[in-house]
Amino acid sequence: MSFKKEVQDALGHYVYGLIDPFNEEVFYIGKANRNNRAFDHLKSKAKAESEKALKIDEIRAKGKEPRVDVLRFGLETESVALEVEASLIDAFGLEKLTNSVRGHNIERGRFTGDQAIRACGKTSVY
50 with 98: CB under 8 angstroms? Predict the structure, then answer.
């Protein structure tokens, strides 16, 4: 499967998830721009050993294909797409995904309220 050129152009910068069809859970989050990167992960790769590739192989071994979901599209710039990607990875939790990194600009990413207070140079929010 792939997006036709007119769909790619309409999507622009977009963020996508790879979905396990057995439990409907997102197992990978990525970003792309006017292309089929979301589907490129599903092309067979010899001796691929990443967690993502192993998950894809596991799903296929059970007789199904992972699904591609567009999570957000029409994003104005690559910078915005990177922020959305990183935010979603933080929200889902890296431990629940096969992504190997949290994404870009993680210094502004998910952390506790106490960490936010310390990062902003305050001792209290009140």
Answer: yes
Assigned domain for 126 exists: no
Is residue 50 one of the residues assigned to a domain? yes
The parent domain of residue 58 ranges over 5-119
pLDDT at 92: 93
Q: What is the pLDDT of residues 79-99, one digit of tens each?
A: 999 999 999 999 999 999 999
The 3-state DSSP class for residue 20 equals strand
The reported pTM is: 0.82
Q: Measuring CA to CA, which residue among 123, 121, 89, 81 is closest to residue 106?
A: 89
Number of structural domains the chain divides into:
1
Question: How far apart (Å, rounded) are the C-alpha atoms in residues 102 and 87?
Answer: 9
Q: How many CB atoms lie within 10 A of CB 29?
A: 25
Place of tokens 């589907």: 39
Please count the other Cβ atoms lying within 10 Å of the Cβ belonging to residue 8.
Answer: 17
